[in-house]
Write a structure and sequence with these properties.
The chain has about 290 residues and is of the alpha+beta class. The protein contains seven helices and 15 strands. The radius of gyration is 21 Å and the shape is globular. The two termini are about 30 Å apart. The structure holds flavin-adenine dinucleotide.
């Protein structure tokens, strides 16, 4: 057995979600943030095009909500869409306060356009937005007195009171494999947050990082949590493919700025998602309990 740690909050994941939360919790909370590889190994560092938010006077939250519902072919949960859109500007302001160097033009933040958006609303840092965000948040976390960052630490399972045969089930920590010492450490915490990113690495061809293997979803499921919408995965239609090298994304901004996907004979494809053709008859969103 490895070491034992005690924190107020254990955050599993060091991407925008994990570090964003760590930096917004009260400074008196002792916080541990884990990354299964190095701190930049998640999807956040790879994001390119930018972040959508209503930042221009000619744009409105309702237009952003409508675009999102349309792009989600009416399958999105409306209250989740509204909440996300309405928090957009505040979240961008917070990132600016942290020091993220978003690209400016004539003294204003430059907004670009991406597929599905009726307005220019993508704030970006050149074409490496995620890298700029990840590096800034890591720097802020390293400067803080209450956040400890752990690399090469893979959460394996949550520790629950039920697993220890105790009454009043609750999550009280996690078992964590330290890849350097090859020992399993115990992280105890009053609150545990799963911010482990996506599961797209379940597919052979993906623009996601190798670490996007859905660990948090599996960990949550094993602890008895309900999981939902697992059938939704984003696939970028513009990747540079090479049979011997790892594929990588060609930015979505290419299509937002007017680029079209053409077959060798010049015929356009993937210009429209048609629910009647692309979804099984009677399709509804689902969630599952273990
Ligand atoms: C190529 C690419 C381009 C993208 N471009 C854009 C874009 O332009 N605009 C946009 O809005 N979005 C974009 N996205 C999506 C966006 O990057 C993600 O939605 C977002 O970064 C997810 O952040 P996150 O913190 O949830 O996850 P991640 O950044 O993936 O972080 C997950 C963290 O969890 C850790 N972790 C995972 N499992 C474990 C475990 N078992 N134990 C310990 N730690 C674990 C990882 O080490 C990592 O630190 C893009 C994604 C990709 C892959």
């Amino acid at each position: 057995m490895g070491k034992e740690f005690q924190y107020d909050v254990l955050i599993i994941g060091s991407g925008a979600a994990g570090l964003g939360l760590a930096l917004q919790l009260p400074g008196e909370q002792r916080i541990a943030v884990l990354s299964k590889a190095n701190l930049t190994s998640g999807s956040t560092y790879q994001a390119q095009g930018g972040i959508a938010a209503v930042l221009d006077n000619t744009d409105t939250p309702q237009a952003h909500i409508d675009d999102t519902i349309t792009a989600g072919v009416n399958l999105s949960r409306p209250e989740a869409v509204s909440f996300t859109v309405e928090q957009g500007k505040n979240s961008i302001d917070w990132l600016i306060d942290q020091g993220v160097p978003f690209t400016q033009h004539d003294g204003e933040y430059h907004l670009t356009k991406e597929g599905g958006h009726s307005h220019r609303r993508i704030i970006h840092s050149a074409d490496a937005t995620g890298q700029a965000i990840q590096q800034t948040l890591i720097q802020r976390a390293q400067e803080s007195n209450n956040i400890d960052l752990f690399e090469d630490c893979i959460a394996v399972d949550l520790i629950t009171r039920r697993k220890l045969n105790l009454a009043n089930n609750a999550c009280i920590g996690a078992y964590v494999l330290n890849n350097k010492t090859e020992k399993v450490d115990v992280f105890k915490a009053r609150a545990v947050v799963l911010a482990t990113g996506g599961a797209s690495k379940a597919y052979l061809y993906t623009s996601n990082s190798d670490g996007a293997s859905g660990d948090g979803i599996a960990i949550a499921w094993r602890a008895g949590c309900r999981v939902s919408n697992l059938e939704f995965n984003q696939f970028h239609p513009t990747c540079l493919y090479h049979p011997q090298a790892k594929s990588f994304l060609i930015t979505e901004a290419v299509r937002g700025e007017g680029g079209k996907l053409l077959l060798p004979d010049g015929k356009r494809f993937m210009d429209k998602f048609d629910p009647a053709v692309n979804l099984p008859p009677g399709y509804r969103r689902q969630s599952h309990r273990p």
